[in-house]
Amino acid sequence: MTLSSIQKGPFEGQKPGTSGLRKKTRVFMEPGYLECFVQSTFNAIGGVAGKSLVIGGDGRFYNDKAIQIILKMAAANGAALAIVGQGGLLSTPAVSHLIRKRKTDGGLILSASHNPGGIDEDFGIKYNVANGGPAPESVTASMFDETLKITEYRISDAPDIALDQIGQYQIGEMRIEIIDPVSDYAALMEDLFDFDKIKGLFSGGFTMRFDAMHAVTGPYAKAILEDQLGAAAGSVINAVPSEDFGGGHPDPNPVWAKVLMDEMMSPAAPDFGAASDGDGDRNMIVGRGTYVTPSDSLAVLAANAHLAPAYAAGLAGVARSMPTSAASDRVAEKLGINSFETPTGWKFFGNLLDAGKVTLCGEESAGTGSDHVREKDGLWAVLLWLNILAVRQQSVADILKDHWAEYGRNYYSRHDYEAVPTEAANALMAQLEAKFDALPGTVWSGLTVTTADSFSYHDPVDGSVSHNQGLRISFGGGARAVLRLSGTGTEGATLRVYLEQYAGPEADHSLTAEAALASVRAAVIEMTAMHSHIGRTEPNVRT
Ligand code: VG1
Ligand code: CO
Fold this sequence. Notes:
The structure is a single chain. This protein is α/β, with parallel strands linked by helices. It is built from 18 helices and 27 strands. It binds alpha-D-glucose-1-phosphate-6-vanadate (VG1) and cobalt (II) ion (CO).
């Protein structure tokens, strides 16, 4: 085996976004492209000599090839140990757990999450640090700096490793462990939740459908829900990870998980439905006939977490991303615990979790998690719901109704305008922000603006400041709109418009979100002159 330094780079545009670097798969397959990003990551963290890494991905096209390359590069850079999921598979939360459990220096996750997979679709890579969480902004900034100046990468010419075979391997001095991707994670879940109670729920006839969307959670969900907890065989569907997610879009929301939604809204619906995304960190929760918005799910989990063993002593606090509805704030207030509002992206929760300031975190994009790992965790959220359902013995719909009666309802929806020309999206945002000083007191579609600002986050733990994290506009009467541009897309810009309307405990909670949000939606369209900027006012996706 020989080690070589290959002259290559720099490549343009290797700037990590909300969650790592995402590009078209063919871009990642260009000679040296992946290699230069990986070497830049190693350079940014002071090299990997003597270090240990967890490596795995969501099984999408190019997952295994990328892992072979990374293993040879890690070995050539002097790493001591690589822990890899069998078949190259590891969910994002499982990587986070393994980094913490095995005390490795970090990990690399191959995934573009909910983006479709395949040679003509998307690929991605993300570096997580020693606490198990996504690299914070200080680290992603140094990674980007390194990508601008890289001229060579190091790689060994060792043969490929048999990723499908559990066992111990070696490339030069570096040890490689191929491990079962599921067992450590399943053991963690068993520690957190009352498995006996959940088993009792299923043996009492409770039915569920979990749609793994042909992505990485399939093996985890089958092992835990069906084999360990006794959900009926066939409860988990689309359970075999495929390179292109069965040609689908592994994004667990009512649009992309339509088959599950249709079943849950039909007369033959099971009691409970759930779905997860490409890399297993997102979750969708649906009761029979009832979709639970991710913001409501976070609030319900916060209010009921004490019913599960791991959270029986209560929560230290709850954090939510800024565009997520304020529903969880109301729960935190009532419980007398901390609540925080952070920028979009899980990397901003790490410090709060490490400092013990919060126990639960969540995002409106179907991400929920706790201090058990440092990532959002799809299956964890499903199991916490099951634990709560097993204790409360009520339907999802009744739990939601009770919740709204106590705290009021935050009607909520996110509208995505995809593949907008980047310049048009930037102009819409810039012109809106330029108006902000004059906005308070003005009326749009019958709503009066109370405040308008660009969100800056001051991290209370390390004092760092992140500017330009989204534009937020509050209106009298409890309405709020947030606008930001996606940091995970690979084509043009995606404009995200987040709409919220609060209705107090005594108010009507039976409206559709669409009806309750019609005024705030109209106000945003008018205020941004949306049609003149992007040529349309209808979003591609509403969640
Ligand atoms: C989106 C979501 C954000 C989430 C991120 C990564 O980012 O809005 O809440 O943390 O995806 O999730 P953006 O910048 O496109 O809005 V995942 O499951 O795609 O890793
Ligand atoms: Co994801």
